[in-house]
Amino acid sequence: MRFARRSSIWIRTAEVLLLVVAVCFSLGATNAGARANNLSHRLMCTCGCAELLGECDNPGCPMRTEEMADLTAQIASGKTDQQILNWFAVKYGATVLAAPPARGFDLTAWIAPFAVFAAALLGTFLLIRHWKNSPGGTLQPNEVKNLADLDPTERAQIEKIRRDTGIDGGV
């Protein structure tokens, strides 16, 4: 009984918190300034600075003022966000959109990075597996079992390398 009462209180508290969050988000969505800020960060400035419209800090930017005025006018006309983005794409070209639309050939821009990453990951996995399974996969030092089997010049070279590198105590 006590447990059911506690869980009921927690459920009611969670419901109230979700309602408060939903109300806060819905209030921000109707604000024209918030909409303009949101949309200006989904559009690129066309002055050549390669920055978002809302972030363009190019001194004396000739395009930012015009584009922001267009954006404000489109919001005031009551168009939806998608209609405004489409209007900008028609007026300034598709490059004004900060992210390509996820349809048609532009879908390639969304899929290609993930496909290239997956292919590279698969290739790396297969390469490591190939190295692991190949006969020369593990490197073994070339040890000479019996120095007596070598000719005197090779034996002298090995002894010189041992002295120079300090192998076997430099003896």
Structurally, the number of domains stands at 4
- What's the CATH architecture name of the largest domain? Orthogonal Bundle
Number of strands: 0
Low-confidence stretches: none
Number of helices: 6
- Computed CA radius of gyration, to the nearest angstrom: 34 Å
Q: How much helical structure, as a percent, in the residues?
A: 55-70%
- CATH C-level category of the largest domain: Mainly Alpha
Query: How does the major sheet shape up?
Result: none
Shape: elongated
State the order of secondary-structure elements, H for helix, E for strand: HHHHHH
Q: Percent of residues in beta strands?
A: under 5%
- What is the average of the pLDDT values? 79
- Ends: how far apart? 85 Å
What fold name stands as the CATH topology of the largest domain? Helicase, Ruva Protein, domain 3
Kindly report the name of the CATH homologous superfamily of the largest domain: Cytochrome C biogenesis protein
Classification by helices and strands: mainly alpha
Per-chain topology:
Elements: H1 2-30, H2 32-40, H3 62-76, H4 81-92, H5 107-133, H6 152-165
Give a concise summary.
The protein has 6 helices and no strands. The protein has helices at residues 2-30, 32-40, 62-76, 81-92, 107-133, 152-165. The longest helix is centred in the N-terminal third of the chain and has 29 residues, at 2-30.
Question: Any overview of this molecule?
Answer:
This protein is an all-alpha fold and 171 residues long. It folds into four domains: 1-30; 31-99, Helicase, Ruva Protein, domain 3; 112-140; 141-171, no CATH class. It has six helices and no strands. The protein has helices at 2-30, 32-40, 62-76, 81-92, 107-133, 152-165. Helix 2 packs across helix 3. The longest helix is centred in the N-terminal third of the chain and has 29 residues, at 2-30. The protein is elongated and about 95 Å long. It starts with a helix and ends in a 6-residue tail after the last helix. The mean pLDDT is 79.
